[in-house]
């Protein structure tokens, strides 16, 4: 598993950076993709793999300027997935 996941921002998708060593997990920018599932699937897969051996602390920053309904659903799924980390890690969501 890579130590870092980085997905650059586009006009319609947010920048997503997940760095195990910091431990910083940031989603920033605009989230108005035509296919929100496709936009977030890489993040979900990466987190599922990371969940097997997480660090004791995760700091998650949402710095979204705006998002559409489809992205809101994916963000909620992401928050639900992050709750699963609470068994092994302290999770701080900003």
State the end-to-end CA separation: 25 Å
- Give a short account of the largest sheet: 5 strands, mixed
Quaternary arrangement of the chains shown?
Answer: single chain
The average pLDDT score comes to 95
E-strand count? 5
Widest sheet: strand ordering: 1-2-3-4-5
Output the radius of gyration.
Answer: 12 Å
Report helical residue fraction. 25-40%
Shape: globular
% residues in beta strands: 25-35%
Low-confidence stretches: none
> Into how many domains do the coordinates divide?
1
Alpha-beta content class: alpha/beta
SSE string, helices as H and strands as E: EEEHEHE
Number of helices: 2
Keywords:
globular; 32% helix; 34% strand; 94 residues; alpha/beta; five-stranded mixed β-sheet
Structure description:
By secondary structure, the chain is of the alpha/beta class. It has one domain. Helix content is 32%, strand content 34%. It is built from 2 helices and 5 strands. A 5-stranded mixed beta sheet has the order 1-2-3-4-5, with helices on one face. Helix 1 packs parallel to helix 2. The N and C termini lie far apart (25 Å). The model has no long low-confidence stretch (mean pLDDT 95).
Give a nutshell description of this structure.
This protein is α/β, with parallel strands linked by helices.
Topology, element by element:
Layout: E1 4-7, E2 15-19, E3 24-31, H1 36-50, E4 57-67, H2 69-83, E5 90-93
Parallel strand pairs: 3-4, 4-5
Antiparallel strand pairs: 1-2, 2-3
């Amino acid at each position: 598993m890579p130590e870092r996941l980085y997905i650059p921002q586009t006009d319609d998708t947010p920048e997503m950076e997940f760095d195990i060593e910091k431990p910083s997990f940031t989603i920033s920018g605009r989230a108005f993709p035509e296919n929100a599932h496709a936009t977030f699937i890489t993040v979900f897969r990466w987190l599922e793999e990371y969940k097997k051996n997480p660090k004791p602390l995760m700091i998650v920053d949402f710095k979204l300027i705006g998002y559409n309904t489809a992205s809101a659903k994916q963000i909620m799924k992401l928050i639900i997935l992050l709750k699963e980390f609470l068994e092994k890690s302290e999770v701080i969501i900003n």
